[in-house]
Write a sequence for this structure.
């Protein structure tokens, strides 16, 4: 009987140990499932962020391209205005020189006429 009681006590102890091991494995399995679910949610959020970030990068590249085009347009416009301004300045200078020569010639003629009248 003592041997049976000893075996029964050992069996009860083994049963408790087995129960603890099963309970531990179930908890580990639940934790693993929880980690998988969290990882899937994390991957989903990351995929959404990646899509938004890709769109942001494309928008930035588009804005850079448009800015470069506008810069070229403005630069071309200013260059055209500068050339036009230079040509008009040159024409105005030539016209001003021509008028000064005419006025000088007129002044000379009048001065010489005045000189002749006074002598």
């Amino acid at each position: 009987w003592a041997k049976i009681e000893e075996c029964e006590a050992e069996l009860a102890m083994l049963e408790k140990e087995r129960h603890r091991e099963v309970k531990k494995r179930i908890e580990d399995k639940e934790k693993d499932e929880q980690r998988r679910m969290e990882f899937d949610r994390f991957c989903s959020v990351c995929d959404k962020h990646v899509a938004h970030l890709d769109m942001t990068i494309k928008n930035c590249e588009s804005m850079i391209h448009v800015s470069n085009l506008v810069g070229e347009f403005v630069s071309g416009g200013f260059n055209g205005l500068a050339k036009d301004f230079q040509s008009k300045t040159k024409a105005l200078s030539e016209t001003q020189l021509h008028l000064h020569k005419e006025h000088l010639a007129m002044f000379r003629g009048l001065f010489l006429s005045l000189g002749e009248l006074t002598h």
